[in-house]
Design goal:
Elements: H1 2-20, E1 31-32, H2 34-44, H3 46-67, E2 72-82, E3 85-87, E4 94-96, E5 99-113, H4 117-184, H5 189-223, E6 233-234, H6 250-260, H7 262-283, E7 288-300, E8 305-314, E9 323-324, E10 332-333, E11 337-344, H8 348-354, E12 357-365, H9 373-439, H10 445-479
Parallel strand pairs: 1-6
Antiparallel strand pairs: 2-5, 3-4, 5-7, 7-12, 8-11, 9-10
Length: 486
């Protein structure tokens, strides 16, 4: 039973850890696919995090504007002491003693009419929130494009390294063959020296390509917010180049981009938000009507002592009469004294209940003159609305130019790739023939070296054209809303 419980506990822990694993976790193998690089970058990029917090702030603003339709309710509580001659806050009589007093209150206000200012403010914040979400998607798109570019640069440099290794191995193999022929006396020593120099040149070329690969890996790590010491390698994607065809016109791609790109949606939402901002600012020029109410009570330590009469009165004569009932001053009137005792029985609870007072009022606020503040705010909102429209037009123009440039680049890259294919095919055949003739002594080393270098450059150009075409075609797909995946 204990073993079963232990196994269940281990299973739950492992399951929890597996489900809690975030997309920003590092691949265990150290070999990253393009999707893993993009997911990790999106989870750790600071610009994405900043945009996410901006969206959350706008959601708070939106909630606040919605709740402003409800009544506002505020309470207040105070308690204090006073000494000397002062006003009793309950009886409003002057007394000379220490007074402990407390006040309790609550007030509420409900907007009844404000020229739709709150309604338009809510609509403004709703569209602003949606626009900021589209801006967040734009930020993510920029990160994905940057990571994809750096990823393909690494893949391209890896291919160049393999090409340089192949060239070095070929020259080393040819050097060994030539060295044996020189030792046998069938070739001159100069042929061996020439090939030795060629091997050294190819070794240098390999080192340069490895340095370029290391630099591209470093830039990819930096884009992923990884330290340079972090082990990182990329997975070479399997790409069917025949499927990368351009089957739409630039205008068709642009129209699709207008429907899918978040920057266009954001610009349109910001125009709508700005329109509501103008209406909300105009609402401040009209009267506002609100319903107000309050509830208050108080307490005083002076009032705690209450007089309880015992039902008897006395007429003291030592203080003299206060009046006479005849003109001869023979019938004096004395102040009667009510007899009784003072008791501390009028406590906090009774005072709290007895001193409650309530108010209800309608308040109409009419803007007459407030130093041009409302009118200036309205004019600024109108100007901001026009600027928002200009910004939207600029974004649309920039998108069109980007699509047109990407289309031309992809079309040119496809032609360069096809030309490089034919060039490599011809160079391979030419080098094969030169190599055969060189091995039988029909051509010299210079011709052999020129042919080998031409083949290496042709293969490097083919790799460059291949990945240039792949990336630029993917950029076109990206403008059509297709994911950046291989």
């Amino acid at each position: 039973m204990m073993k079963a419980k232990l196994l269940c506990a281990i299973f739950l822990i492992v399951t929890t850890v597996a489900h809690a694993q975030q997309p920003d976790s590092l691949p265990a193998s150290g070999v990253w696919s393009l999707k893993q690089c993009i997911d990790y970058a999106l989870a750790n990029n600071l610009s994405v995090k900043r945009s996410t917090y901006t969206v959350e702030t706008s959601e708070v603003d939106l909630l606040q504007s919605k709740l402003s339709r409800l009544p506002s309710v505020n309470g207040n509580v105070s308690y204090g002491y006073s000494w000397g001659r002062g006003l009793d806050p309950v009886s409003n009589l002057f007394v000379t003693q220490q007074i402990g007093s407390s006040n309790f209150g609550a007030n509420s206000s409900l907007p009844l009419f404000n020229a739709l200012r709150i309604h338009n403010t809510v609509k403004q914040n709703e569209n602003t929130n949606l626009a900021l979400k589209e801006d967040l998607e734009k930020t993510k798109n920029d990160v994905m494009l940057n990571v994809a570019t750096l990823f393909l640069t690494v893949v391209f440099n890896k291919e160049l390294v393999e090409n340089a290794k192949y060239q070095l191995a070929s020259s080393q193999q040819q050097f060994e063959r030539t060295r044996k022929q020189v030792q046998a006396g069938s070739l001159a020593k100069s042929e061996e020296l020439n090939l030795d120099a060629q091997v050294a040149t190819n070794e240098l070329n390999l080192i340069q390509q490895e340095n370029a690969l290391a630099l591209s890996l470093l830039r990819l790590k930096q884009a992923l917010q990884l330290p340079a010491s972090q082990a990182l390698d990329v997975e070479i994607p399997v790409i069917n180049i025949e499927d990368l065809t351009i089957d739409q016109t630039r205008d068709e791609i642009y129209e699709i981009a207008r429907q899918t790109m978040p920057e266009i949606k954001s610009a349109e939402l910001k125009i709508t938000s700005s329109n509501h901002a103008v209406k909300a600012a105009r609402g401040n020029l009209y009267p506002r009507l609100s319903l107000n109410g309050s509830l208050n009570t108080n307490y005083s330590s002076v009032a705690e002592t209450e007089f309880y009469p015992d039902g008897t009165i006395t007429f003291p004569d030592d203080k003299g009469p206060i009046a006479f009932v005849d003109k001869d001053l023979t019938a004096p009137v004395y102040v009667p004294k009510v007899n009784g005792v003072y008791k501390d029985t009028y406590g906090f609870g009774e005072q709290f209940k007895d001193n409650i007072y309530k108010t209800v009022s309608l308040q109409l606020t009419i803007p007459i003159f407030n130093s041009y503040q409302s009118r200036a705010a309205f004019r600024r909102s109108v100007i901001q609305n026009e600027q928002t429209k200009i910004n939207a037009q600029e974004i649309s123009n920039t998108l069109r130019q980007s699509v047109e440039t990407a289309y031309n680049d992809a079309f040119a890259a496809s032609k360069s790739y096809n030309a490089s294919l034919r060039q490599v095919s011809a160079r391979e055949e030419a080098f094969r023939m030169i190599k055969q003739r060189y091995e039988i002594g029909a051509v010299n080393f210079v011709e052999y070296q020129v042919s080998e270098n031409d083949l290496f450059r042709a293969k490097s150009d083919l790799l460059r054209a291949k990945y240039d075409f792949i990336f630029k075609k993917k950029v076109l797909d990206f403008y059509q809303g297709k994911p950046l995946a291989y």
